[in-house]
Model the fold of this input.
Amino acid sequence: SPLLITATEIRVDEPTCASSSDPAQQQREIAFAKNILPSLDWPTLLQGAKAMGMESLPPMVTPELAADEGFLRALYHVLMDVHLVNGMLTCPDT
Done:
């Protein structure tokens, strides 16, 4: 089973006004999230995101969600804009 994260400090980067209003940038973010989604271990990502206070991800990804631009932009945000600065990893098996 995956290591457990206990976050003591995180940093969340907010998109700049220029990048969030640039349609080409938005499409790159959506394409990135759509392409990486099949390779993600969703339960592990969800566990890590929750440990860092990010409660915006759904418990499972449906085909409808995988095609939803709002969901894909939220996924991109969690993957690329949330950074663990300080924390501890704990092995759940010990």
User: Anything to note?
Assistant: Strands lie at 4-12, 82-90. The chain has a mean pLDDT of 86. Helices lie at 17-21, 23-36, 42-51, 63-66, 69-81. The longest strand covers residues 4-12.
